[in-house]
Design goal:
Shape: globular
Strand order of the largest sheet: 3-2-1-4-5-6
Number of strands: 18
Oligomer: single chain
Distance between the termini: 62 Å
Radius of gyration: 24 Å
Amino acid sequence: MSAIEGVGPQVLPQLEEQVEQIIAEARRQGASACEVSVSVDQGLSTTVRDGEVETVEFNRDQGFGITLYLGQRKGSASTSATGAEAIRETVAAALAIARHTSEDDCAGLADPELMAREVLDLDLYHPWEIGPERAIELALECEAAAFATDSRVSKADGTSLHTWQGCRVYGNSHGFVGGYASTRHSLSCVMIAGDEAQMQRDYWYDVNRVGEALADPVSIGRRAAERAVRRLGARPVATCEVPVLFSAELAGGLFSHFLAAISGGNLYRHSSFLEGSLGQTLFPAWLSIDERPHILRGLGSASFDSDGLATYAKSIVENGVLASYLLGTYSGRKLGLPSTANAGGVHNLFVSHGDEDQAALLRRMGRGLLVTELMGQGLNLVTGDYSRGAAGYWVENGEIQFPVQEVTIAGNLRDMFRQIVAVGSDLETRGNIHSGSVLIERMTVAGR
């Protein structure tokens, strides 16, 4: 397995050949079946702080991981080494593990007829020809714009530009081999504002498959500064039960808890509060959630899942009713259900929304808490109990009154999902989950 030059689509044939070599070696050593993932990627990262360059890093990685089977016994191993000897040793290591594992009647590759028939071109590869000097220049421009926004922006907590490109090929002993190249670029800015009473930190960022399509560095810096200044004067509020509005950038996290609860691994381990909920009404009748894996340039787009199965568009929640779990081959077998081609996760989730922006949702809420930051990991997935540290803004008469900090919001996810009043039109598109701000009818806000 020789070193690969480049990371773009031109190296796909070489990576596919490596996959076939590794599968052949696994068969030679006695594996009854196997699957392999080979990847090569590289990236540039730079961070500046207070007008000075803090870090410039260039990384390049290459390697493979193999999972093989001896009947119903499974073993996995990986390496970043290259060459024929590395292949032999890694396969031998995986076999040694398999020989010492217990038989599992659900282990094994997906059925051959379910393998993806073609790998779609989803326009995921857009390398950004940017060197360290230009990356530093853009980061410094972003930070300078933040400092220029308001005199109370006194310190920087890091402005970072990252650019990444890579190529991955998956194959298995059923004869499926598929791969694609992709890119991901981002620019983020974290600033600190201060006055005589306190200091506050906030951020802003953008991410895109296309580097040139990132938001203007000046706009990112200004937004980070404005958000930090806006939080000055934050204080707790008295404990109460009020409506809570999750900002769009936090709504994805709220729905990620839902995804975890309907994922096969948690379901077959009996560690989800939504076990047995297929076909039940979990959300209001106007709300639907669907997966769209084939969006061009989508940050979550993929032609096939981690098992090699073709991804496809599907309804997850239809008119409030849970229409599908998220299953891979193994978890599907454990549950006695077919795979939903979600081994490795979901691909571009969309939450239905109305035509009200965040300001309109504040007016509808009247009095309550707009949450813009969450802290801690206070979620019990078995019971659905939810309790997180929060910061944001207190709202009266539909308008923001003052910033809030040092409070906790609490509820139960099953109740929270059912009590969603509206989803805003202010869609967050910088990730795998697309949702607007989410207004929940009532939660406990614990303060002073």
